Amino acid sequence: MSGYDNNPFAEPTSDNPFNDPSVTQATSSNIEPVEQYNPFPAQSEGLATQTTPASTSPFQPAVLQPSTEPSPRAVAAVAQADLQRQQEELERKAAELDRREQDLQSRGLTGKENNWPPLPKSFPIKPCFYQNFSEEIPQESRRVCKMMYYLWMFNCVTLFLNLLACLAVFTIDGGYGIDFGLSILWLILFTPCSFLCWYRPIYKAFKTDSSFSFFFFFFVFFVQVGFFIIQSVGIPHWGNSGWITAINIIRGNVPVGAIMIIVAILFTICAVTSVFLLKMVHSMYRRTGASFQKAQQEFSQGVLSNKTFQTAAAGAATSAAQGAFQANN
Predict the structure, then answer these.
(1) Coil, strand, or helix at residue 39?
(2) Does 70 sit behind a cis peptide bond, omega within 30 degrees of 0 on the bond before it?
(3) Residue 281, domain extent
């Protein structure tokens, strides 16, 4: 019954497992708990001493770096250096222009060295003309100008072969002596005259875009085309180994007739090529904006600026004035 006298709400001492002496000794020991154990005590203390304390204010004011603007003296030095560089560049260009001007003046005094015809330096006759397609002729008309030059050379070769053909005919028939003589005349006459009268004018026309040179070329080259046609036809006793003469000769002598037919073919090629080139030059001439009025103006300016013409005109005017003065006295 004594057990029933105890307080039922008091903790039972005998039933509490934590009241065991062994458990109480383990829980009251000096061993540090796992949560408080620090494996790096020294490092933590060092880091703690080096940690910068946080600022008490939540916001930091923006700090602008001071701008380093150049001083007026530095700006002046840079401007002076730039002006000095520009001045040196201008002086260099001026020196280059002076050198070119001196070269042009020296060329004007001495003139360009003639290179045509290409003769040896030891030859007693020197070149008479200067010719350079890449330097003097524009790119768009260079091809046509070269073709005109090749036509002139082809015509010269044909005239020489015509002389040989007429000589062959003269050896088999003495009645063709007049043809041989005229073939020599055509070779001597047409070779330089064709060069001076229609090749050099078209060369100058392409070089200087001269309307007068174009008109002069057209006038002379029309005549040259007529001669090419006559030479290819081969009128008997005109000194040309054309088709008519070649057909007449081949009936009696085949080898000589064959030579004359070859020459007739060459004359025909000259005639066809000349017509073709004439059309090409005319189409290029129409694109240059040349006109007859411009040609007249160039001719008048060229005549009036000619020193020989000026001297002759001054002499005629002086003689007329003296004659009128003596008549009045």
Answers:
(1) coil
(2) no
(3) 137-296
Query: Does any domain span residue 215?
Result: yes
Task: Tell whether the model's pLDDT for residue 320 goes beyond 60.
Answer: no
Can you tell me the mean pLDDT for 201-226?
Answer: 91
**Which pLDDT value is given to residue 220?**
95
Cα–Cα distance for residue pair 18/21, rounded to 1 Å: 8
Instruction: Fill in the DSSP letter of residue 30.
Output: S
Q: Is residue 310 one of the residues assigned to a domain?
A: no
Condensed to tens digits (0 to 9), the pLDDT of residues 18-42 reads 556 665 665 555 555 555 555 555 4
Domain count, the chain: 1
Supply angle C-alpha 285, 304, 311, rounded to 5.
145
The residue-averaged pLDDT of 297-310 equals 53
Q: Which pLDDT band, with edges at 50, 70 and 90, does 240 fall under?
A: very high
| Cα 132 from Cα 118, distance rounded (Å) | 12
Q: Among candidates 232, 228, 247, which has minimal Cα distance to 169?
A: 247
| Angle value at C-alpha 118, between 114 and 120, nearest 5 degrees | 105
* CA–CA dist 288, 282 (Å, integer): 10
Angle at 213 between CA 211 and CA 217, to 5 degrees: 120
Spacing of C-alpha 147 from chain mean position:
21
Which residue from 198, 189, 206, 242 is spatially nearest to 223, judged by alpha carbons?
198
- Map residue 129 onto helix, strand or coil: strand
| In contact, 249 and 260? CB cutoff 8 Å | yes
Q: Are 148 and 137 in contact (CB under 8 A)?
A: no
Above 80 in pLDDT, residue 314?
Answer: no
> b/e string for 4-24 if b means 16 or more Cβ within 10 A?
eeeeeeeeeeeeeeeeeeeee
Amino acid 95: pLDDT:
79
pLDDT of residue 323 exceeding 70, the answer is no
pTM here is: 0.60
Q: Is residue 210 part of a domain?
A: yes
Instruction: Evaluate whether residue 85 is within a structural domain.
Output: no
